[in-house]
Amino acid sequence: MFELTQDHEDFRRLVREFAEAEVAPHVEQWDRDASFPTDLVPKMGELGLFGLNAPEEFGGAGLEEGGFTYLCLAIEELGRVDQSVGITLSAGVGLGINPILSFGSQEQKERFLPDLLAGRALAGFGLTEPEAGSDAAATRTRARLEDGSWVINGAKAFITNSGTDITSVVTVTARTGETVDGRPEISAIMVPSGTEGFVVEPAYRKLGWHISDTHGLTFQDCRVPEDHLLGERGEGFRQFLKTLDDGRIAISALAVGCAQRMLEETTAYASERIAFGRPIAVNQGVSFQISDLAVMVEAARLLTYKAAWLNDEREAGRRSLAEVKQAAAIAKLYSTEAAVTATRIATQVFGGNGFMEEYPVARFFRDAKILEIGEGTSEVQRMVIARGLGLPS
Length: 393
Fold this sequence. Notes:
globular; four-stranded mixed beta sheet; alpha+beta; Butyryl-CoA Dehydrogenase, subunit A, domain 2; Butyryl-Coa Dehydrogenase, subunit A, domain 1; 51% helix
């Protein structure tokens, strides 16, 4: 059975101290300005957060066995202070680094990983399109081989870490032909920032995650060398499925951080807020809601840790992909819905103050909803779980 070691707890404390010192004092201003704190990323890199599950050969921590659990702890602790900063790490590793680490050639790894692992650069993963979200197989972006180059045309939507000053590369999925049975052949191609024909659209105006960098991308006869193919031709669909399994657990960890913060905020506020001459926590209508919140946090955390542990066990060859996929979907579904509920409870406990931006619950309320959408909606998770149970589809 899995359990956190003293090393895990020491690492958690290290990240929490970093988040309290480097993020907490500035996050309200960053959120108000919708500004991405580029200078924070190298500091996270110095702490080793981008290279926890990467080999030392490229500048990682060398925690190939057990590294994913450490990553989830880091995401949780950053997300407890701010969800945007948490998703910057989650996407930077899960969507930016891991595809290169898992499927890249030696040359691709040597070119991109050292800067990415050190936090000197960020990478993105371009999967979602305006008309291809949950139905990723409906990708319309196309890439054709011409004179030794891939020529890419199409558009991507909602791509994290794709337009920062330090973004070095975005991996995009594209149709590169058809399979023998007539289905789209989908491949993954790496497009370095600044490539001619690669257009980063203006940043979105979002409900939440104001600090996180999110853009649409357009490719207009964008040419990259043939050797920028990531992995094997036609394997892009399989690659992104693995990427999503990891990402769902990471988002679950982000949700745990959100719910944990709401538990802390409501417990403190309900103990201090006086109404009718006594703390509002005396009222069972308040204390029971906070008690329910504590149960949700505990359950979400255990589901997330179990999924992270199973993922580490799979990487070591001791667990199956099917086990991880099911655990990831269960953790992501429960944790993200719990986080949304937690922010609703917190806002209600805070009353009118919960509607004021000077209190952090308002920011977390705005940030939480996307957790049920990104990396596979709640509906998709239920579909995955049903398939894992063997139910007819």
